[in-house]
Design brief:
alpha+beta; two-stranded antiparallel ribbon; 6 strands; 37% helix; 22% strand; RRM domain-containing protein; Nucleotide-bd_a/b_plait_sf
Amino acid sequence: MAALRRLIAGASKPSSLIPPTFLISHRGIASKLFVGGLSFYTTEKGLSDAFSQYGQVMEAKIVMDRVSDRSKGFGFVTYASEDEAEKAIAEMNGKDLNGRVIFVDYAKPKHNFGGGMPIARGPPDSVDRVHFQDIVSEN
């Protein structure tokens, strides 16, 4: 964090500043890895153990289906540093884990598209119904 403050304080022009929130959030994302192609039998402990040989694993999370409570076949591994994450990508991408070839890359930011329940649209407007009736009655 101190290095970030020095970088921002040392910038000569305000236009050359990178927003500090971008740097902080980028750093957080850079040490979080997406792991795809996981076997349904891979556990969070197994995922953590496999990746811990490349650095300090802060968290290993497998995404589960809410209905079946089964793995969706992908997860995330968070490292304490970016260097450890880079090393894990280089070593684990394309490797076999529990009988499946996995692929590893940096996690992308989560986008919230409104989520939750879909919006009910309701019946069409009365203008559409009138227009449709006009077309039918002309024939």
